[in-house]
Amino acid sequence: MRAFRRKSRGAQITREEALKSTPVKSAEVKEERLETGEVLLTYPVMVRPLIASLIRQFGGDTSRVQVKKLHLDELGTAVWDLMDGRRSVRRVIQGFAGKYQLHIKEAEVAVTRFVRELGKRGLIGLK
Amino acid sequence: MAWKEFAWNGIRFMAPPDWQVGRIGARYLMLEEESGPVLEVKWGRIQGAFSHQVHLRRLADLHGNELGKSVRQSPLPAAWKKALGKYKAIGFSWRGETIGGKGVVLCCSSCQNVTLIQFYQKGSDQTKKIPQRLLGSFRDHRQDNEVIWSLFDIRATIPEKFQLVRHRFEAGEFELAFASEGQKITLHRWGPASILLSGRDLVQFARTILPHPQEESHPVIGAGGKVVEWSIKPSSTRYDHWWTWIRAKSSFQWARLWHVEGKNRILAVRAEGKEAIDLRLLERICAGYESL
Questions:
Q1: Which of A100, A103, A113 minimises the CB distance to B152?
Q2: Is B153 at the interface with chain A, CB within 8 A?
Q3: Which of A125, B56, B177, B196 has minimal CB crowding within 10 Å?
């Protein structure tokens, strides 16, 4: 048996499939609209068991759920607003490119990077 | 929708509007659509005798064992032959498990440029008219010693003697740098301007992104502060001139930024060199540099 096994990356999807999928916001995320029009997201994160035990040893809060905040800038807010649970990633890209007069490829790179980042944090899922 | 122009490092052609640039090299372009790659173009100047067979063998080597074995010369379709006109060309094809390709190696006798163009074919969905029209629009040189650069949403015309030394296409920021005999010209493009200029004007933006080396305030030219320009000209004294050479620094520096409001972008041309660059040339480059 190998001592260290490479972590599975999970099923890889093609670009076409990714563009067809629809981003759906997590029900756990709370959204607050700031005066500037930008959005502040608040979401729970589970602390890893090892980290939680270390916190406990140092007398910290033993609760394994922590709350994190993410402040989206104007561009991030625009993409977040376009993700209404019905629009596909492709349509979010088109909407974003149209709003800021961006080249479609440039908008695709920016939106997919943002969607991936939100996905990593568990703020959205793709259906 | 109308076909769009792709022009990069000496070559130009028209392609369907939904084909996008997937990969870029100094002398390489790969175009793709949503389902995957659709076109590859690779080119370069040859010295001495040219052999189509040698280039086909190189292509086979590039594809690796299995695909490489399937690369074979194939007759050039009559429509392709007609579209390519003056070029000396041979056709080839290859087939893998899920994808195949059909292409042409062509050589231009006037500029000694050799280009490999291959169309990817998935099943039989490739429209026959696309390669014909694309090949008909293909050009690998111009008569006026100028080179057109047109990718994504920028288009510029640069004298042939300036060679591409760096390119960067990132979301929000494009950069193309050219050099010739100690002179350097860089094209910049930023967007969206409405975000970049929110809470500041173009002068303040220029100060952060292309600062004047001597931290002088940027003179604003043009109407309504839509153009910012600064320059440092070579010193007239012999000592300063010599000292600049010793320090290997550019004694001439020039930059112009302008806001293309209708396109929501900011364009800039920056030039530097040990000797002054002809301002008429810089004016011409600025006039031809546009956001599509």
A1: A103
A2: yes
A3: A125
B70 to chain A nearest CA, in Å?
26
In sequence order, the 6+-apart residues with CB closer than 8 A to the CB of A120 are: none
> Which among B34, B192, B198 is the nearest to A101, CB-wise?
B192
CB atoms closer than 10 angstroms to residue A87? 15
- ipTM of this complex prediction, to 2 decimal places: 0.79
Measured CA to CA in angstroms, residue B195 lies from A38, A99, B156, B201, B202 at distances of 13, 12, 24, 11, 12
pLDDT tens over chain B, length 292 residues = 799 999 999 999 999 999 999 999 999 999 998 888 999 999 988 877 777 777 777 766 665 555 556 778 888 899 999 999 889 899 998 887 778 889 999 988 888 888 999 999 865 555 678 999 999 999 998 888 899 999 999 999 999 999 999 999 999 999 999 999 889 999 999 999 999 999 898 988 998 888 777 666 667 777 677 899 888 876 666 666 666 666 666 678 899 999 999 999 999 999 999 888 899 999 999 999 999 9
Which residue of chain B is at minimal alpha-carbon distance from A111?
A: B171
Sign for the pseudo-dihedral over CA of B53, B57, B58, B62:
positive
**CA torsion, points A72, A74, A76, A82, in degrees to nearest 10?**
120
A18 contacts chain B (CB < 8 A):
no
The neighbour count for residue B274, using CB atoms within 10 Å, is 16
- Any chain B CB within 8 A of the CB of A110? yes
